[in-house]
Write a structure and sequence with these properties.
Glutathione S-transferase Yfyf (Class Pi), Chain A, domain 2, 54% helix, 2 domains, 8% strand, 4 strands, single chain, 236 residues, four-stranded mixed sheet, Glutaredoxin, alpha+beta
Length: 236
């Protein structure tokens, strides 16, 4: 990496995908700077940011003039372009394909359900709009089936989703599963196997995990403080 400037990451840590990118940068000690783009202020919609990413979404990575969007692509680029341990995104085709298999599934399954829960439990109340309780019930039921697949199809009896060591699959998955904590909902509380996996991932990531998720903990504190004593909202 000699002669390379620090990469620049445009992030909002309320986003699970942005947290995954920051954790990867920190955990692998890749020189970087971070520019916070506040989604709540629609800063990703400004003309200036649209020049950087016409999709007007986060995260965005800028590396010596090379601009890349989409968290999956960013993480795989960093794992390939920088000297990081092979377990993140293995060179062996079969092992790499397992990581690709999960990341392809994650976006259309886990991301969809988790984002919908965040919308109904955090964003709509913050905008003083009524949440659709029936829709939320349906989303939670769908998520339950998705968690079954995470546990039985991907994790199985392994330590991590793609084998014996942490990979990009685990990083993306854990950041998704932390998102409902914003509303005090721990969706893994009745799933001891996935709870053990989450603990292993958190231990493997050390301080970078809690640093990136500090905003989640802050939102949770504010949210749960507003709950009445008789609320049946799941809490930690």
């Amino acid at each position: 990496m000699a002669g390379r400037q620090a990469v620049k990451a445009y992030l909002d840590l309320v986003s699970q995908a942005c947290r995954a990118v920051l954790i990867f940068l920190k955990d692998n000690k890749i020189p970087h700077t971070m520019e916070n783009i506040a989604i709540r202020k629609a800063q990703q919609k400004t003309p200036e940011f649209a020049k950087l990413n016409p999709m007007q979404k986060l995260p965005v990575l800028e590396d010596n003039g090379f601009v890349l969007t989409e968290s999956d692509a960013i993480l795989k680029y960093l794992a390939t372009a920088y000297n990081v341990p092979d377990h993140w995104y293995p060179k062996l085709p079969e092992k790499r394909a397992r990581v690709d298999e999960y990341t392809a599934w994650n976006h259309a399954n886990m991301r969809t359900h988790i984002s919908s829960i965040f919308l109904h439990e955090v964003l709509l109340p913050r905008m003083r709009q009524p949440a659709n309780s029936e829709k939320l019930k349906t989303v939670l039921a769908d998520l339950d089936g998705t968690l079954d697949k995470l546990e039985n199809v991907f994790l199985k009896n392994q330590a991590f989703l793609c084998g014996d060591d942490i990979s990009l699959a685990d990083l993306l998955a854990v950041c998704e599963l932390m998102q409902p904590l914003c509303s005090g909902r721990d969706i893994l509380k009745d799933r001891p196997k996935l709870l053990s996996w989450r603990s292993r991932v958190q231990s493997a990531l050390s301080d970078s995990f809690d640093e990136a998720h500090s905003v989640v903990y802050q939102i949770r504190e504010k949210f749960t403080a507003k709950l009445s004593p008789c609320s049946n909202q799941a809490t930690l």
